[in-house]
Specification:
The chain is α/β, with parallel strands linked by helices and about 290 residues long. It has eleven helices and ten strands. Helix 9 links the parallel strand 9 and strand 10.
C-alpha cells in the first residue's frame, strides 16, 4: 500500500505513535523489513539516503515500489537527507513518495527558502516533504555525517519554520546523534524541549533522526511526547552485518541463500523490537 509520508504520519500523530524509518542498503535488508512489518501489521517508512542510493542504484527503487504496492500495510519510500533541489527532483522522478531537503546547516532564512522551493515542486505531484531545524550530532564516522556540536531546535523558530516553508514534517534536534555511541558515552534527550516544541506544533508530525543506540525508555517517552517518525539505520545494519561476519567464519559458504537468511533474521529481530517500542505494531488497521 504505497503512500506518501504525510498520509502515514498524520495518522500516527492523531493516535500518538511513531513510525520507524528504516534505512536500507540492499534488497535483502528491504525484504526482511517488509516481512516483519507485515507480520506485526505496522506502517513503515523505507528510507534510502543518497549514499545508499548511489550503492544500490535507481533500479532497486523501482523494485521497492513494486513490492510496496503488493503489501497490505501502508508504506512509503523516502529520500533521507537530500542535499539540494536537483537531488530531490531526481528522487521524485525515480519514484520516491517522500523527500527530505536538509538545509539544517544553512542560516534560518536560507533553510526556509530551500524547503519552500522543494515543497512547491513536490506537493504538485503529491510527494510529501520533511525539513530539519537544528543539527543532529555525530557519534562515529562510519555512516551519515552529523554536526560537531548539536544545535538544539528553538520552539519559536520551529513554528516560524513550518509556517513559512510549508513542510509536512519537521526533524528536530533534541540531543540525538547519527551512528553508534562510543563506549562510555551515555546520550540524553531533552524531552522537555520536545514537549515544548510539540505544544506549539500539535498538528505537525515531528521526526527524530539518529534514533539508533539511544536508551529505550527515552525513545519510548519521545513517542508519547509527540515524535511520529524515528530514523533507524545503524542498529539494523550492525545486527545484519555482525551476523554476516559470524556466518562467514565458515569459509566454505558461498551461496547467498546460505549466508544471507541468518543476517536477515538478525535484522528482523531488531526491527521488531523498534516497531513495538514505537507502538506501531497493529496500527496498519488505522489506515
Amino acid at each position: 500500500m504505497l503512500k506518501n509520508m504525510k498520509e502515514i504520519l498524520s495518522v500516527a500523530n492523531e493516535h500518538n505513535f511513531a513510525v520507524p524509518a528504516f534505512n536500507v542498503a540492499d534488497y535483502n535488508m528491504f525484504k526482511g523489513l517488509m516481512e516483519i512489518t507485515e507480520e506485526l501489521n505496522a506502517p513503515i517508512i523505507i528510507a534510502i539516503h543518497p549514499d545508499e542510493l548511489k550503492h544500490v542504484g535507481p533500479e532497486m527503487v523501482k523494485a521497492v515500489i513494486e513490492r510496496i504496492y503488493k503489501s497490505p500495510v501502508p508504506a512509503c519510500i523516502h529520500l533521507d537527507h537530500g542535499a539540494d533541489f536537483e537531488q530531490v527532483i531526481w528522487a521524485i522522478q525515480t519514484g520516491y513518495t517522500s523527500v527530505m531537503i536538509d538545509g539544517s546547516s544553512l542560516p534560518f532564512e536560507e533553510n526556509v527558502a530551500a524547503c519552500k522551493k522543494v515543497v512547491e515542486a513536490a506537493h504538485a505531484v503529491n510527494v510529501s516533504v520533511e525539513g530539519e531545524l537544528g543539527t543532529i550530532g555525530t557519534a562515529d564516522n562510519f555512516g551519515e555525517a552529523g554536526a560537531a556540536v548539536i544545535k538544539y531546535t528553538d520552539p519559536e523558530d520551529a513554528v516560524r519554520f513550518v509556517e513559512e516553508s510549508g513542510v509536512d514534517t519537521l526533524a528536530i534536534a533534541i540531543g540525538t546523534c547519527h551512528g553508534l555511541y562510543p563506549k562510555g558515552v551515555d546520550p540524553e534527550l531533552k524531552l522537555d524541549l520536545l514537549s515544548e516544541i510539540k505544544a506549539k506544533l500539535p498538528n505537525t508530525p515531528l521526526v527524530l533522526h539518529g534514533g539508533s543506540a539511544n536508551p529505550d525508555d527515552e525513545i519510548e517517552e519521545s513517542t508519547r511526547r509527540g515524535v511520529n517518525k524515528i530514523n533507524i539505520s545503524s542498529d539494523i545494519k550492525s545486527a545484519y552485518y555482525n551476523k554476516m561476519r559470524e556466518v562467514l567464519q565458515n569459509e566454505k559458504l558461498r551461496e547467498p541463500g546460505d549466508i544471507q537468511p541468518p543476517c536477515q533474521a538478525a535484522l528482523k529481530e531488531v526491527a521488531a523490537h523498534k516497531i513495538r517500542l514505537f507502538h506501531a505494531d497493529g496500527k496498519a488497521d488505522l489506515y
